[in-house]
Structures
1.
Amino acid sequence: MSSDEPRAAILHADLDAFYASVEQRDDARLRNRPVVVGGGVVLAASYEAKRRGVKTAMSGRQARMLCPDVVVVPPRFDAYVEASKRVFEIFRATTPQVQGVSIDEAFLDVAGLHRIDVPPVDIAARLRAQVRDQVGLPISVGVARTPFLAKVASGAAKPDGLLLVPPDGEDAFLHPLPLQKLWGVGEVTATRLQAYGLRTAGDVAALPDSVLVGILGPAAGRHLFAVVHGRTPERVVTDRRRGSIGAQRAIGRGPHRPEFVEAALLGLVDRVCRRMRAAHRTARTVVLRLRFDDFGRATRSHSFRHATATGADVAAAARGLLDAAAPLIRERGITLVGVALTNLESDDMVQAQLDLDGPDTTGLDAAVDALSARFGSGTVRRASLLRSGEGLAVPLLEE
């Protein structure tokens, strides 16, 4: 292949049923059995459970109806974070060009290794073997010319598979796929397209972009036209620092007491503030995320005049946003609460603010962070969380 010809040198590596796989790895009694992580809401399902119809975000009751012999285990986030760190070490030992997408997946650009290493598909096979041998987890990898195609290929390779999409075979791979298999095409968009008799990527590719713009609007129509014709960006983004740090908690259908929702939110605040300080960042904006009983969503945000890493500041802002959203919550019910810190900055040049209204909590934050680092994140908890016992906290890694 000449240097001018396109190469399939982007890998998308995605751990299979990550949380459930960690549980099956660590407990031999769970292997080859249908496993669900979570109780009220399914956070992850093993492939044995998925084959019975169990899906992520499904209620625990639905999961048991579909799969009466399912084994439900509580989440162990420290174990998942540790496994993720070990896998990402393998990614970065493979190539410096790594773009983390979430706790269990990443893009790797191996184009620069073509003179010193084996072909990309062989690099992918080696990476899969290393993750299985060194971390004990199954991982699926897609290899293609663009991140989009690599992502779709890894999905098609699941579970525990490897799929190469050569540049001259992109249309043959992409066009027969159902629209729902295209990364970024959600249920609403797919349903709208299906109303026009469009079922596959090939159906959409046969249309001019003007028709798609008429159906979906300018931005979505042009984007989907680019997607089905392989015109998505080709580079992996590795030079952008994380733009936000967030976590969310599924609390199931209510009604829920306001004090419980507030306690859940403050627990998330503690989690994201610890992660922010560990990354030596500060935040200018706090974002509240809500999901309602009718599956609708809403976000509210508050920006500080000066960036902060203090838990008390973030907690006060989050409480204010939740109070302002209380009428909406009472009207529509709530099933999930989340918080994110955005507009992140380095903590190298933090100007401490004089607190004239109360004590400085910086030392408290540092002490709690130190205890969590030494003894685990669950060592110190807010007293308001000790009786909650509802819902499940889900860490998010965002760009």
2.
Amino acid sequence: MANSMKLIAKKSFPKATQVTDRFHVQKLALEAVQEVRIRLKWEALDQENQSILQAKLNNAPFVSKEFSNGDTAKQLLTRSRFLLYKSPNKWSESQKDRAT
């Protein structure tokens, strides 16, 4: 998939047909999803830290926002990693609850 390798392959094997294999395409896609998940997790952590600071400044207790499954945004983004790699029909009951 690298351009340098395409050039080498074309010069070495001019009549060959170049293909991109499924494994490497999936790997790139999963790495991209992982990057987005991590970025969103850091944003959730920053937002929670700001909320905690704001609550302290207002002398109010900090209450974290929870989803219907009881997870906070940072917990969901932490625990969702393996859900992204598994087929939904292979999820455990707690993973199914977490995803709803």
3.
Amino acid sequence: MLGPVVVGLDGSRESLAAADWAVREALRRGLPLRLVHAWEGGMSPDESELPELEAPRYWARRILRDAMDRLNERYPQVYLSAEQISRPAADALVAAGDEAELLVLGSRAFSGFGGFMAGSVALATVAHAARPVVLVRADHNLEDEHEPDAEGRPSAHTPYRPVVVGVDPAQSCEELLAFAFESARLRATPLRVVHTWQVPYMPQALEAKARRDVQSGAARVLDSVLGPWREKFPAVEVTELVEEGRPAQQLLHAAQDAGLLIVGRRIRPARVGMHTGPVAHAVMHHVRCPVAIVPHA
């Protein structure tokens, strides 16, 4: 049985943009949307009578209530639920995400200030989540998911922008490609699959041939990996981008006009630290479109 789409809220502009994206994704997937707010006061906001907790208790309730009202008005066809969780934010979000089809959080660039989703909590959640996590910027809106119209103006009625996924065939790709192909199918949009390669240092006389051989081999491997997925998703138009260079740089370039970028994160046995991997770390901080981080073995 599929879980809901879950979105973490903290009242920031980032988390409100994440809620808007999440409700549209829930609609695309035919799933309910669960809104979660972490109460860090040490107990349920309904249990304490301490006067000094009255203001934070009021704002905690209002964050969820305002978001519910806003989303119900815009998307009445999506079933919504809301919950306040009395746990530290990252722990609460990881636990909620474990029961979800995907978890959606607000995010912003590496520098600057914002709600707790913009910094360490988002990073810790991504590093420890067992399900895909999507990060959404504060300025992202419905029109950003779609191509501009014929006059180059933002539009919510044009086709969706492409989905981009970064693939390393040397790693497990099943979860990553399943999420990518399904995301492209739901949007009826092309899927760009990016695989990078590099030539090790060698004498200049041998470099040109080595470059051709490495590129050709990388293309063959990627085509072999994608073969079963093309058969499973025949309606998805796939473009293979086999590029020389560093993965993060090539993904940043490929995602400039994308509606969604998807990267993998290897699951580590120890739930200590905030290890997301260099590629995921780079795109989380520098890509403007929503970024999905998919954990894999």
4.
Amino acid sequence: MTIWTELAGLGFEVSMVDAGGVPTRSLRAGRGEPLVFLHGTSGHLEAFTRNLVPHAAHYACHAIDMLGHGYTGKPDYRYEIPRYVEHLVAYLDAVGIDRVHLAGESLGGWVAGWLAIEAPERVASLQLIAAGGTVANPAVMARIKDSTTRAVTTDDVELTRQRLRLLMHDPANATEELVAVRHRIYHQPDFVANLPNLLCLQELEIRNRNLLTPERLARISAPTMVVWGQQNPFGEVPEAQRMAATIPGARLELLPECGHWPQHEQHERYNALSLEFLAKYSAG
């Protein structure tokens, strides 16, 4: 299966959107209420190619390269969570979205959760997919920082392959096409130069001041579903359980044989759960 077969039959557009002065790569497909997919640290919109066809049948889907990621602009400052949120809001404003369903994976969930806290009127529903930001685990942070740095600063495709396989329970899900896409992104000169800004949340002091603390999570009022792989290498199941227990009314879905990309590794199960969840909180 390739990205092209995953998107087969789907009418979509990939373009650059001016989001507050930051050129932002965006894949858009479908019609209906808006749904924005947000990827994780050092990721890109291709993380959601297995989700777009079923979701675009019911929603106006947007998958974007987040601030400093993929082919989106890379301004020279530290990418702390409020910066990501500022960029996301600028994107929503640029494409005319007042209220949105958000599905954020890892870093994307962290950003989506922060927006739901700071601007609840903008968020119709919230999916936290292996979301980061509730803990500061130095071992995990070092693994993310070191593996990404080696993959970006060394032109050995095997290091990119290893970095992508870190996300998966089954290494076969880190397809060679995804490896090639990520390797090309990683070796853009501006991506290499910008890497310290992108990885700043793996520094303990910076991460601690950006955490989704229990007090913050308790302020989320949007309908929320937490989705977690039972073999998530960057966070064990109790982390997801605490997150769901802290967010008022949140629902928790644990997916077996699944790592840090539930929407990709267990896409059939995830897509069904997501569409059922979204249907409950959509106006139509």
